[in-house]
Amino acid sequence: MGADEEFDEVRRMINRMLSDAVQGKRGPDVEPHAKGFAVRSGARDERPPRRYIVQVPPEPALPGPEVEATPEDVRVTMDLGGRAPTAVRTRVSGRLLLIEVEGPRPLQRVVELPVEVETEARCSVREGVLDLTFKRRKPLTVP
């Protein structure tokens, strides 16, 4: 296969993908999923720990959440797109925050925070806007 044929094949593949995107066709990965990967450590005989990346497809009509960090806390504000939540659950892992909104139209979002926070949050929903406030995690002090 010559160079011109390879470029033609790539061009046809790109045109197919663009046409699918314009027509609204989605690939197989439209549901939330987690991918695991191993992290290497210094010791050869110990098994590497498993890390996970959670990928939640964003809802294109909603803007991304706003994150504001102050010296005392971290505030996350998110538009719910007219949803009336029956429950809001949050999970914190390091600097990642998973927000799950339950109700007639459920919603999941993953937000990267600027600093690590405590797991407890103050939560309020007003006029379709979710406000979460987390206390910053205090650094460990060694006496």
Question: Would you spell out the secondary-structure blueprint of this structure?
Answer:
Blueprint: H1 3-22, E1 33-38, E2 50-55, E3 66-69, E4 73-79, E5 87-93, E6 96-102, E7 107-112, E8 117-126, E9 129-136
Antiparallel strand pairs: 1-2, 3-4, 4-9, 5-6, 6-7, 8-9
Short description:
The chain is mostly beta strands and 143 residues long. Helices cover 14% and strands 43% of the residues.
Low-confidence stretches: none
Distance between the termini: 68 Å
Work out the helicity level: 10-25%
Structural class by sheet pairing and helices = mainly beta
**Overall morphology:** elongated
What is the chain-wise order of helices and strands?
HEEEEEEEEE
Task: Kindly give the count of domains.
Answer: 2
CATH C-level category of the largest domain: Mainly Beta
Can you name the CATH architecture of the largest domain?
A: Sandwich
How big a fraction of the residues is strand?
35-45%
Rg estimate, integer Å: 21 Å
Helix run count = 1
Average pLDDT works out at: 76
Please summarize the sheet with the most strands: 4 strands, antiparallel
Walkthrough of the structure:
By secondary structure, the chain is mainly beta. It folds into 2 domains: 1-26; 59-136, Immunoglobulin-like, CATH 2.60.40.790. The protein is built from 1 helix and 9 strands; from the N terminus they run H-E-E-E-E-E-E-E-E-E. The radius of gyration is 21 Å and the shape is elongated.
Keywords:
Immunoglobulin-like; mainly beta; 143 residues; 4-stranded antiparallel beta sheet
